[in-house]
């Protein structure tokens, strides 16, 4: 997905091995040209040497998001949810495979106006509205007047002006949308800072179960990359060093020895109290329902 225009692309693959991914990317680059940089997660296929060599040979800077932090690519993750819901509905209603309807679903997404930019992704990329499902619906119910003819020079001049103006408006709308989302997020967020050498607990997946995670550690902060990313030393795992987002970290505090000993189960165990026994007595003032067993101690008579 293009970060500026929100133009999405989805290519069905039989396997997600690095060679298949590289072939699909080269095919995509042949249509939309080579980007200056690209961001991916830290999947094993995207962190391989072959993938790094291909990007280096094409002079593409590889930016890696923080591990186990999908918010780093929030727009892309949200598109994944939308596309999965659309493919599920397509398969249930048509009874066909999802890859057969993928091109039409992408066409519908690309012509939909994005709330963050105010334009459709196709309009920002191609400079005009595409003739998709929404355009067909408009033509069906409204009389579409014929557009006047233009020569090539007039069309190119108007095209450049239209694309430039649309990109400026989209950039301003995207900045305003990001500021609005940031203010909403900052209301409930807590700022945390760590220094090199601090002991922290990190939320990491449980070995052997990628669907479960827990706070592990304590680990030491080895390097501070930014206000949100830190390099953590994990000597007990296969990777000795890893980049972690601040949202997956919390400070580690050592318990005081005195407090720990006083709050131990042995220190808090109940102490038995011995009450000296005395012969049961009958109180003439009672109503015959209470036995006086000891001084200040009575019980009901059976």
TrEMBL record:
Pfam families: Integrase_p58_C
Listed InterPro entries: Integrase_cat-core, Integrase_p58-like_C, Retrovirus_Pol_polyprotein, RNaseH-like_sf, RNaseH_sf
GO biological process: DNA integration
Cited SUPFAM superfamilies: Ribonuclease H-like
GO molecular function, one term: nucleic acid binding
Stretches assigned to the Integrase catalytic domain: 1-129
Gene3D superfamilies: Ribonuclease H-like superfamily/Ribonuclease H
Residue ranges that the Swiss-Prot or TrEMBL entry lists as coiled coil: none
Source domain of life: Eukaryota
Protein name: Integrase catalytic domain-containing protein
